[in-house]
Structures are given as structure tokens and as C-alpha cells.
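>> received
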Amino acid sequence: MKIQSEQSLAAAYRFKNENAVKGDLSQGSTSGNVTAGFDRVDLSGSSGQIQRLKTMMKQLPDSGAGKVAQLKAQIADGSYQAPSVETAGKMLASWRGLNVN
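>> returned
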């Protein structure tokens, strides 16, 4: 399509903007605020969920911190002895596709 005049060009832009606003309204905008030509993101629902998850995570017990500190200390002073038979067994099971705990 070739636009011949400035009036036709202006009419095409008006048509495009009017349809963009109508499209926003027909897609169920919950905020009621429609601004043509701008993107909008509403994070208020997501931020509340994130805050609840953060609170829940803070309440969980720190189950591995003591074990990690103990292993780091053993590795640092050279006293850590890896359980070779158990390690080899888990490696073989992993390579075979088995799930061994």
C-alpha cells in the first residue's frame, strides 16, 4: 500500500492508534488505565507472592550449614577422608542411570 498524501498518512496513524487502544480494552485490561503507545507491566500481584515466599524461606531451618562448615574445616586441615567405596558406588549407579541415595 502506498500512501499518497500527508492527510492519508495522518489518517493512517490515527486509525492505528485508535485500534491499539481498542485492542487494549478488548484484551481485558484490569487497571482501567490505557495509554496508547506505551507498554505497561503490573507487578503488584507478583511482588506480594515473592514477599510471601521470602518470608516462608526465612522460616525454614538451615539444615546444611553446619555440615558444610565441618567439611570445609576437614578439607582445610587435611583430615577429610572421602568414603571411596560409597563414592564409587554412587558414580557407577549414576553412570548406569540408577537413582541411589
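>> Residues 1-32 form one domain.
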